[in-house]
Structures are given as C-alpha cells and as structure tokens.
Write a structure and sequence with these properties.
Number of strands: 23
Helix content: 25-40%
Structural class: alpha+beta
Largest sheet: 10 strands, mixed
Number of helices: 13
C-alpha cells in the first residue's frame, strides 16, 4: 500500500496520466545491467536483451537469469543497475581526461559508469559520508577494475573546503525520500512522510551548496534524485539558482526524458522502462581555468619493480603512494589528501614485504593480461573450484593471473605442478 498523501500529490502532478502511472507500478520490474568498457570487448550472454536507450553500455536482462551469480559479475564485466538510474551520468557526459566528482556515490553504480566513460584518463573522486556504504563503494570500484578513482568517506562540506573550484564536472545524486524505490524496497514506503520529504530537501540544499563550491567556472553540475517530489526536484533546483546567480540551467539533447522545465528532466515509470528518476543540468558561468598542482608521489619499491618486470606489467599515468606496507598507484591528478578520510587512493597494487611483493586482488581485476596467466572456461568445474578457494593443477611457477575466459578474476601462485589459490577468502563461494 502506497502512502495516501503521496498518491494525492502524484495525482495532482500527473492529472490524466495518473491511471497510467498506477498501472505501471503493477507490471513486472524492468531490470538492467551496464557493461564495463574498462574490461574490453562485451561478451555475448544469453540473458542480455534490449539496449537501454540513453546508455550505450546498458541493457535490460531476463530477471529470472540471476546475473549477479555469474562469474563475469565477480570479474567486474558488468554492474547491475536500474535503467533510469543510468540517466544522470548520461546527462553529466564525462569526457576522458577530466576531473570528476561523484559527491554522494555509494553503492557505486554511477561512479563506475563515470569511470567507464573516462576510459582510465583523468581522475574520479567518489565520496560517501556513511562509513559502511563507503566500504561497499570501495569494493565496487575495485571489482570493476577502476584505477583512476579516489574513494573518500567525508562530508561534502569537508571536501568543498579542501577542493574549491577543482572539478570539471560534479554529480550530486542526492539522498532523497526514495519514491522511485517504493516497488524495490519496502522500507522506502514505511519511512516516507511529508516531514521526511522536507528534511531531505534541506539536506539536498546543503549538499548542492558544497558541490557548487567544488566546481570550476565553466563546469557542469548534474543534480539528480530517485524521487517524484517537486520539493526535492524542481523546487530544489530553483532554490539553488536563486542563491547561486553564477549558475544557469543548461539544456542538453535528451529526447528520452520528459522535460519538467528548462534542462530539468523527469523519468516517469509509465513513460519508459525504469523505476523513475529526476535530473537537472546546471552550468557554472565563467571561464574555466586550470588550477591543478599534484601532490608528490613516492618512488616505487624494488620489490614491486621486480614483480612488475617478471609479469610484464605496465602502469598507466600516475604515481606511487604507500601506506604502511600497502602500495597504491594514485591518479596523476590526485590532489593532496592528507587529513581526509581516504579509503582507496587509487589502484591498490599490493603489499610490500621485506624480501617480496604480494599483489592485491584489485590489481588482478584491473589487469587485462600479464606475462603469466591461467585461463579457465567461464563455466565449469575448474572456475567453480577456483572461486571456492581450491588448489588447481598448473605448470606455471610464481605469481599467475587467473582468468575466467578473457577476463581476469584473481591471483594464484604456482610451483610447477599446482596453483595455490589466492582468491580472497571473503569472496569465496
């Protein structure tokens, strides 16, 4: 049962379309996934169906197929993401080489979508204020093999103080009353109230103020929610514009979405295959200036150099950063992060021991290939045994990249007859 006050308000919003809206809530949910271009060629999968019109890498799938259990999901080949939730990044339109911020990023759907469009160039800062959700975000960045992302667990206010005018584009997919989640999550229905809507609107205004501070002059800001409430959507944008005269709405070509004002777009579930979303595109006026001064990196230790040379690994543009024994490869454009809560300062390479180097699972998922590899069929007993943590027969010696078909999945270490399994214990099935 949907809240009566919610239904009354939506009836007023939609008028004659209200009946079609209610009917759309009775149909089976349209489920979708988004392929990860960082992994290379898209595989042919039997459960993948029609494309999502506004996202080139998005496809609907058969909800009976349970693609989250497929080995390609573990390998980061795709991300399960509701179709209308793919719209804000399509409107943000990130370009390779840019500096991008996803300010409210967990669980990581839009961050990994942005990373795919950056193609490994530039930098993505993805932030989540909730510590538990920030860890989930960090794991998804790792699973999809993103090297040029920094994951932070900070308040938007703290980031805006440290990084004013730093980013080319900022996405604010704001915490909201979640009316577009009513069919998916029962808690979204029970937690809803007019007071909750008002509280969300106040919080959204604060986040938008921080986002505005972090954006370069000439930069693009996309504000989005998964709710239908005008107070959190159109009214929130108009309130922001009133307080920020240096911003203007920026119309973009978006034929799939229903305009609710200049450069403000609604995705109603009775208009398309999706649960619903709202997004607005804003431009910060002024001339864009480069203000980047990179933080200093550390020299890579000899243990890594020996490991990388033996496995023929070349790193992208960036710099080494070491925290204790853990070595990361940070994006070249990463700013100084001392004093910020950073969960992942780039790609985790591994652990530097006294006389050796132990590679991280994140490095395996980023690598497309290396000098020593064991390719397993993506379906069958051998890949199942590997994901279970079992030892496999293998003639290789030393560290070996294990692949599910053409996609890397983890590490093993061979002695010439068998491969000791180094798939993370917390991920084993």
């Amino acid at each position: 049962m949907l809240p009566e006050l919610f239904l009354e308000r939506v009836h007023g919003q939609l008028g004659e379309e209200y009946g079609a809206f209610l009917e759309s809530l009775q149909r089976p949910r349209a489920v979708a996934l988004r392929f990860n271009p960082l992994k290379g060629e898209i595989p042919t999968l039997s459960f993948v169906g029609e494309p999502v019109p506004w996202e080139p890498m998005g496809y609907y799938y058969d909800q009976e197929s349970r693609p989250g259990l497929h080995v390609y999901h573990e390998a980061g080949v795709y991300y399960l993401q509701e179709a209308s939730a793919m719209a804000p990044v399509a409107l943000l339109d990130p370009q390779p080489g840019e500096l991008i911020c996803d300010l409210c990023a967990a669980p990581g759907g839009k961050s990994t979508q942005i990373a795919g469009r950056l193609r490994g160039l530039g930098m993505l800062l993805c932030n989540e204020i909730n510590p538990k959700r920030a860890k989930i975000l960090s794991r998804n960045i790792e699973r999809l093999g993103v090297a040029n992302a920094v994951v932070t667990n900070e308040s938007p206010a703290a980031l805006s103080r440290r990084l004013p005018g730093f980013f080319d584009r900022v996405l604010v997919d704001a915490p909201c009353s979640g009316e577009g989640m009513f069919r998916k999550e029962e808690a979204a229905v029970t937690d809803w109230s007019p007071e909750a809507v008002q509280m969300c609107a106040r919080r959204q205004a604060e986040i938008l103020d921080c986002a505005a501070e972090m954006l370069k002059p000439g930069g693009r800001l996309v504000y989005s929610t998964c709710t239908f409430s005008p107070q959190e959507d159109e009214e929130a944008v108009l309130h922001f514009l009133k307080n920020h005269p240096d911003f203007t709405l920026e119309p973009v070509e978006a034929p799939w979405f229903q305009e609710s004002g200049p450069a403000m777009y609604r995705l109603w579930p009775h208009k398309l295959l999706g649960e619903g979303h709202f997004a607005a595109v804003l431009r910060k006026m002024g001339q864009r200036e480069e203000n980047f001064s990179p933080a200093s990196g550390e020299r890579l230790p000899k243990q890594w150099e020996c490991f990388a040379r033996e496995l023929e690994i070349s790193l992208p543009e960036g710099r080494g950063v070491q925290f204790g024994e853990t070595l990361y490869w940070a994006p070249a454009h990463m700013p100084e992060v001392t004093g910020l809560r950073v969960l992942r300062p780039g790609l985790e390479l591994g652990t530097v021991k006294k006389d050796r180097f132990e590679p991280a699972h994140a490095l395996a998922l980023w690598l497309g290939d290396c000098g020593c590899r064991l390719e397993l069929a993506p379906e069958g007993p051998k890949i199942a045994a590997y994901l279970h943590g079992e030892v496999l027969p293998c003639r290789e010696k030393g560290w070996c990249l294990v692949k599910a078909g053409s996609f890397s999945i983890g590490w093993g270490k061979g002695d010439g007859t068998q491969l000791k399994n180094h798939y993370p214990k917390g991920l084993r099935k």
